[in-house]
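Homework help board

Subject: predicted structure for assignment chain

Our instructor gave us this sequence and asked us to write out the predicted structure in token form, then describe one feature. I got the tokens but I'm not sure how to describe them. Can anyone check?
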Amino acid sequence: MDLSGIISISGRPGLYKVIAQGKNSIIVESLMDKKRFPAYSSDRISALEDISIYTIDDDKPLKDIFADIYEKQEGKEGPSHKSDIGELTEYFADILPDYDEERVYASDIKKLFQWYNLILKVGALDATPEDEADEDQTKAEVSADEEE
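My token output:
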């Protein structure tokens, strides 16, 4: 699951894809409506690949949680972020039972499901974990070398 190039900008709805880098800004494109605009260094930008969720022992990367939701939902859309927070929290606890309840807020859980559904909707969610994709590519390269 590759979340590289997908970012969140604090104060703006939705997620964005990094298109290019300018002198003082980056050009981003909204995943929802495909509009492009510059994001400046004064904007609070977070890359999804750098985000992780607090657990009791360690942190779990967002891409792993998205993969778990994808597997549980069998590739279908997850619960709506507008659902009752009790239902969302219960569903999230099924996915990540050891999450830190004191540091993971209800707003974080809502945002996680909103992001998951948006990424799934635009087709940017690939169910193949990166490690497996690398293994498949390595196997293909090895078998190509053996044929020579």
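Reply (TA_rk): Your tokens look well-formed. For the description, you could write something like this. Residues 135 and 141 are 10 Å apart (CA to CA). That's the kind of observation they're looking for.
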